[in-house]
């Protein structure tokens, strides 16, 4: 399998080079030349297969011959070694819980898969690999955890000061070792802009391999297909409507990829908070990035969603095909909080604010279509967000890892939005 750039002015590359490069030189995103269809035989046998076997089958054509099959199988096995349960909440709404990994958010899947691929690719490299990652909340912890202690890899995490939760901040600032956290006096979009600049910096690239662990990296993006298959493996009846709480749109783009490859899903709902660039686009056909505004679902506070172009690419830019399959909704903070209270009072289920956006968007869709059933992605554990305590009054059962985390000391480097400062830091790491 080869990867081309969505801007179409960079050479095609292998999986290995797409992962190591992160982003093509023309600043587009890497995209696979094909979305290979999956065999009907595989799709109808999901129930008989282990999660590792499913992951392996889903990803193998994308990795091509960049990774030996036994190694790839082992990468899959250690990536998905935690549960992905479907939990029914109402008659027609279920949660797909994606928060049972080490940092309690769905990003563990992509981050673990990518760190293992990169570990494999860096093995024979003479020089260091610098992984530069911008986070709006959960990416940082997942990436830090995935890469911690990986030889030859230095990880720099950029996060917006005062815009991530306490648990999120501790997850990305307490590991030490090869992980450095930079606390930026700016927004997530500022972090993302700086991270992108490092990838295009020739001087830096002469010293080290520079790559990104953001969802723009294909090794983060593509494995996010896995759990859509795990959902369907646990599902009886007609294809579900799938509601995906969305910020940078990597998760939804992966679900849509799974669907066009043959996994049956009736419809997708792009569930957004007040950052409504995509819902606007679906109404007007104009994609107009804006500055991000802060909301309760802070990991979705993105004003310029980088992965949306991959969704357009999957539908070959045919707006009508996109509109047939994807509905986009913007949910206010008020409605998010009300949903969290309601669902706890009436169904005894604790939603985190991101899951609540997904739930609410799905409930709105199903209210007009009583014959349909749906699944929303519960993308993070409620304990990661202080707002849950404030709004719902309880976090439910707190995983033990959290209690240990709360005793640790934060370590970060404070920085203004200044590329040169960041570059100086990176140069000191190689
Ligand atoms: C990152 C994140 C999202 C948004 O996912 P995208 O792939 O960026 O759309 C939603 N919920 C949580 C908890 C997240 O961490």
Helix content: 40-55%
Major β-sheet annotation: 6 strands, mixed
Strand order of the largest sheet: 4-5-13-10-11-12
Rg, Cα atoms, Å: 20 Å
Uncertain spans:
none
- What best-fitting shape do the alpha-carbon axes yield? globular
Per DSSP E runs of 2 or more residues, the count of β-strands stands at 14
Strand content: 15-25%
If you average the pLDDT, what whole number results? 94
What is the count of helical runs? 20
The unique ligands bound to this protein are: pyridoxal-5'-phosphate
Structural class by secondary-structure content: alpha/beta
**Termini Cα gap:** 31 Å
Oligomer: single chain
Please describe what this structure looks like:
This protein is α/β, with parallel strands linked by helices and 430 residues long. Helices cover 43% and strands 15% of the residues. The chain contains 20 helices and 14 strands. The strands form 3 sheets. Strands 4-5-13-10-11-12 form a 6-stranded mixed beta sheet, with helices on both faces. Helix 16 (333-347) packs across helix 17 (353-367). The mean pLDDT is 94. Bound molecules: pyridoxal-5'-phosphate. Pyridoxal-5'-phosphate (PLP) is lined by residues 105, 107, 137-138, 215, 245-252, 299-300, 354, 379-380.
Outline of the structure:
The strands form three sheets. A six-stranded mixed sheet has the order 4-5-13-10-11-12, sandwiched between helices. The protein has a five-stranded parallel sheet with strand order 9-6-7-8-14, with helices on both faces. Strands 2-1-3 form a three-stranded antiparallel sheet. It has 430 residues and is an alpha/beta fold.
């Amino acid at each position: 399998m080869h990867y081309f750039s969505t801007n179409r002015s960079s050479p095609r590359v292998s999986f290995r080079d797409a992962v190591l490069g992160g982003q093509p030189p023309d600043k587009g995103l890497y995209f696979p030349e094909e979305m290979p269809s999956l065999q009907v035989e595989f799709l109808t046998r999901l129930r008989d297969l282990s999660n590792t076997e499913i992951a392996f089958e889903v990803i193998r054509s994308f990795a091509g011959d960049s990774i030996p099959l036994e190694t790839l199988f082992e990468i899959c096995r250690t990536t998905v070694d935690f549960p992905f349960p479907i939990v029914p909440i109402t008659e027609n709404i279920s949660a797909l819980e994606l928060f049972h990994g080490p940092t309690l958010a769905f990003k563990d899947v992509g981050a673990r898969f990518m760190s293992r691929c990169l570990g494999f690719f860096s093995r024979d490299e003479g020089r260091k690999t610098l992984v530069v990652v911008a986070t709006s909340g959960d990416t940082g912890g997942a990436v830090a955890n995935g890469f911690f202690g990986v030889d030859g890899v230095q990880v720099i995490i950029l996060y917006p000061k005062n815009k991530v939760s306490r648990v999120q901040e501790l997850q990305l600032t307490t590991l030490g070792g090869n992980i450095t956290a930079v606390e930026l006096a700016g927004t997530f979009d500022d972090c993302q802009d700086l991270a992108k600049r490092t990838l295009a910096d020739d001087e830096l690239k002469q010293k080290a391999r520079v790559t990104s662990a953001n969802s723009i990296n294909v090794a983060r993006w593509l494995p996010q297909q896995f759990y859509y298959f795990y959902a369907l493996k646990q599902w009886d009846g007609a294809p579900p409507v799938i509601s995906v709480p969305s910020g940078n749109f990597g998760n939804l783009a992966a679900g849509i990829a799974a669907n066009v490859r043959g996994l049956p899903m009736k419809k997708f709902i792009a569930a957004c908070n007040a950052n409504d660039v995509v819902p606007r686009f679906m109404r007007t056909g104009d994609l107009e990035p804006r500055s991000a505004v802060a909301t309760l679902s802070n990991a979705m506070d993105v004003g310029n969603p980088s992965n949306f172009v991959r969704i357009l690419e999957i539908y070959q830019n045919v707006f009508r095909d996109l509109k047939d399959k994807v509905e986009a909704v913007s949910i206010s903070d008020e409605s998010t909080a009300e949903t969290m209270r309601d669902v706890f009072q009436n169904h005894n289920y604790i939603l985190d604010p991101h899951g609540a956006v997904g739930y609410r968007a799905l409930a709105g869709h199903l209210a007009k279509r009583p014959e349909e059933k749906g699944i929303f992605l519960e993308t993070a554990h409620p304990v990661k967000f202080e707002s849950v305590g404030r709004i719902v009054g309880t976090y439910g059962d707190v995983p033990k890892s959290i209690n240990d985390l709360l005793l640790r000391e934060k370590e970060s480097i404070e920085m203004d939005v200044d590329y040169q400062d960041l570059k100086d830091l990176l140069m000191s790491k190689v």
